[in-house]
Amino acid sequence: MGVSKASRVMAGRIPYEFVYEEAGLFEVREGVFSRAFLLKEMRHEVGAGVSGGLAVKRYASLLNRLPQDMTVQFMVYNRLIPLEDFLKDILVVPDKGDALNVWIDRYNRMLAEYCDVGHNNVKKLVYLILSVKRDTPEEAVRYFKKQEDGLRKLFEERCGLEAVPLSAGERLRVMYSVLNPGKEDFGRRLGYAEGENPALTELKERRLTTKDCIAPSMIDLKYKDHLVLNQNTYVRSFLITSLPVSLSNSLINDITNISSNMIFSCIYEPADARYGLEASARAVAENVVVKESAKRDTISERRERAVVRREMMLTENEEKFGEKAALKTFRNAVAAEDRTFLCTFVIVIFAEDLQVLNRDSELLHISTSKFACQVKCLDLQQLEGLQTVLPLCTCFVDAKRMFSLSRLAAIPPFGFNSAFGRGGTFIGLNAINDNLVLHNRKSGKNPAGLIAGVEHSGKTFQCRREIFNALISTEDKVIILSDSAEYEGFVKRLGGEVRAIMGINPFEMREHYGLVNTDIYSKTIMIEALLAAAVKECGEISGGLSVNEGEEITNEAEVLLKYAVELRDAEAVREAVLNNADQLPVMAETVRVLEQYLQEGSVSGGGRFILYRFGGLMELILLMDHLFNRMIEDSENNITIWLFIDSVDILLSLDQTAAFLSDYIEKMNALQNVFTGVVQSSVRLFTDKAAAFRLEDLTRQVGYHKLLNQGAIERMRYTELLNISNSLVNHLTGAELGRGVVFTPFSNVAFDDNFGDEKDGAATGLYELFSEQG
Q1: Mean pLDDT, rounded, for 297-325
Q2: Which of 23, 106, 457, 500 gets the highest tally of CB atoms within 10 A of its CB?
């Protein structure tokens, strides 16, 4: 089967010279050779627990170890997958018992409806293309052979990615799908069977080229701001012209979510920082003229005939401003001994009609503006934009920008599919592009989290959403600690139990109680917290206790711990303390208060979903300590616990109780249990100097933050603590109910979550479940 003359013309627009089949090598231009790889995420454990900060450092290390003579391209290619396959991955199997299964069915029904919003059933394929200049193909083959093993190992160790080499046929297949959107018949027009890659020797015998295999039947270039492929696919190319100083590591992920049929390409070409500094300084100097004018503001200035010198640019255009920006980058890079790269960021969107193309183009502008990025349509350069995103590692658009390694490392172009981990449950719609936001709290080493917002921002709603997600997506135990009745109806409707507190031994200390510290040290922290709580609560009630809150509590805690270790039995400890009440006033008063808990019975039991009501700080500490001893038992049976505390504010009221909470979270993380605390009043804590330090430490300690609407004071403090970009701060300012930002070790996303609201879909009762009172 031959090829038409028109196809030959189209083939001439495909920008490479030759393909070396055995080596998988493309000669793009004379003396420029490229090799391609598919980056595949390795098994989930490889990347588990890697925080965003650590991921940036690892990516920076990877870029720093790339050879100085190698140009790198990352190509992010969105491919649609069948909706039914996508739903299989996200819908929950209703196997949790009758009380939960009815809600799981409703959850699945609502989630299926939400899938029609945004671009969800998309798989992002990430290709790595490397290019180098060599005199002959043999030299290029030897070069890549020498570098390949080291580079593949580097991607595996630093980023948990397997770099799978692409054969020449596999790369041609990728290029065919780019140039012929929606078609999966690569090679068929030449008479080859589906899935068969044409052999180059056979093509030569038939007087054909590899370009004949992949060329579109038509490229219509008569439009300024888009082109048309094969008469039925509209294509628009964009260039990212500027990026903000503060970069979000979710930037590329969010940009590539605006369309299910798009390509994002970034090409990094190493640059010599010192040579670049000299060249850019020269270019800037040649475009600057110094003008002097008399300065006559004061008598002395007039007497001395003072002058003001102003630098003015002779020519003001994008190129000249780029030279000025490059000079600044080179100066900073040389000072910091940082590597520099000439970078090109090109985005290409495909659509079936012009209306859809315009809509997705508008979404792109909205998405990039949220990150303070600037993009422009490549008017009259649409073909060059399309050629640039092809997996050839060659830029056909004359628009390179200078970046330091440290800035590039902030926006890794991979890791999208694990950013909100596998097995994740729905936490809202992406506020920028309406895609589903799915997250697996257990996907990292630090699943502990906080929920915070102003009054009536939806904190209880979000806490219930987190509880519900844990119940339906795992077999784990879920425990709620609350000082109010607002969770009782919710718990009972989901088949849970409400239990009283009794039968607690505050001196219990199971083996490995300390986990990350010694058992004695960890128990000392708990007893100090208990005594401090007694001073606070008993003093508030009767005025009966007044002590030096630091030294005396520590001294009495040491004595109490000694009794606990020696006697073990709670009643024996109580008698020993009361017999020495004169020397141990705080401890004696505490033990008297504890008598109401030292009854027969237990807070433990076989239930999977339990709510405990506590009446004050002492009760909360006792309950948490008792439950932790049970967690140690459960860990021996591989049982995971999710613990939700409706108000952690009370634990941040004292230094000792805050230290207890910090130690508690650290131990829960060590057991791979999941802690979630609700901060009821961030502003009250942040405006109290001592409490502010405690909340800051807690915020830094946890790895998952769900921030809702924030007032000015707390918004400023959280922005500093979490390094929130300006684009995301806007989603915390005057945010409507159900809206906010979720911060994880992997990525940060603005979300909109009124899940189950009947205004958004069919009646399921879910919104009522999450928002009911009591």
Answers
A1: 74
A2: 457
Give the residue from 750, 84, 751, 86 showing the smallest Cα distance to 417. Answer: 86
Q: How many C-beta atoms surround the C-beta of residue 561 within 10 A? A: 20
Range of weakest confidence among 203-207, 216-220, 460-464, 696-700: 203-207
Q: Is the confidence at residue 311, as pLDDT, over 80?
A: no
Residue 309 clears pLDDT 90, i.e. is over it: no
- Answer whether residue 451 is part of any domain: yes
**Angle at the Cα of 344 from the Cα atoms of 341 and 349, rounded to 5 degrees:** 155
Torsion of CA 685, 688, 690, 691, to 10 degrees: -10
- Both tokens of residue 423? 């097995």
In 118-265, which ranges are continuous DSSP H helix? Answer: 137-159, 168-179, 200-205, 210-214, 251-255
Residues 202-229, mean pLDDT to the nearest whole number: 88
Cα 220 to Cα 234: distance, rounded to the nearest angstrom: 10
Task: Look at residue 774 and tell me if it is in a domain.
Answer: yes
What is the β-pairing status of strands 233-242 and 374-377? antiparallel
CA distance 334 to 273: 6
The span from the CA of 459 to the CA of 619, in Å, is 23
At 588, the amino acid letter reads A
Q: What is the helix (H) or strand (E) element at residue 289, kind and residue range?
A: strand 288-294
Residue 548: its pLDDT value, please? 45
Q: CB-based contacts of 173: which residues, under 8 Å, 6+ apart?
A: 186, 197
What pLDDT is attached to residue 719?
94
Closest CA to 631 of 604, 599, 593, 663: 604
Residues 534 and 618: beta-carbon distance below 8 Å: yes
Pairwise CA distance, residues 505 & 601, whole Å: 11
Determine, yes or no, domain membership for 295.
Answer: no
Question: Are residues 44 and 52 in contact, defined by beta-carbon separation less than 8 angstroms?
Answer: no
Counting Cβ atoms within 10 Å, is residue 212 exposed (0-12), middle (13-18) or buried (19+)? buried
Tokens 């100090």 correspond to 528
Helices then strands, each counted (H, E), the chain:
30, 26
Q: Does residue 684 carry a pLDDT above 50? A: yes
Is 268 in contact with 343 (CB distance < 8 Å)?
yes
d(CA 263, CA 255): 10
Asked if 718 and 699 count as a contact pair (C-beta separation under 8 A), the reply is: yes
Q: How many domains does the chain have?
A: 3
Which burial class, exposed, middle or buried, applies to 351 when counting CB atoms under 10 A from its CB (0-12, 13-18, 19+)? Answer: buried
* Sequence-ordered list of residues with C-beta below 8 angstroms from that of 327, at least 6 positions apart, any chain: 277, 280, 281, 283, 284
Q: Is 325 helix (H, G, I), strand (E, B) or coil?
A: helix
- Contacts (Cβ under 8 Å, ≥6 apart) of 307: 292, 293, 294, 295
Q: How confident is the model at residue 552 (pLDDT cuts 50, 70, 90)?
A: low
pLDDT at 49 over 50: no
Separation between Cα atoms, residue 348 and residue 239, nearest integer Å: 9
Cα–Cα distance list, 756 to 111, 278, 732, 761, 765 (Å): 9, 60, 22, 7, 7
Over residues 413-422, the mean pLDDT reads 59
CATH number at residue 761: 3.40.50.300
**Which residue, of 394, 417, 440, is where some domain finishes?**
417
Q: Are residue 235 and residue 371 in the same domain, yes or no?
A: yes
Phi, psi of 401 (to 5 degrees): -120, 150
For the segment 53-110, what is each residue's pLDDT rounded down to a tens digit? 667 788 888 888 899 999 999 999 999 888 888 888 889 998 888 889 999 999 999 8
Domain-terminating residue out of 556, 571, 602 = 602
The angle subtended at Cα 434 by Cα 425 and Cα 420, nearest 5°, is: 35
507 token code pair: 């001196």
My answer on whether 266 and 209 are in the same domain is yes
Q: What's the token pair of residue 206?
A: 């038939």
Region at 208 (left for phi over 0; alpha for psi -120 to 50; beta for the rest): beta
pLDDT score of 199 more than 60: yes
Instruction: Provide the residue range defining the domain that includes 701.
Output: 93-120+420-501+604-774
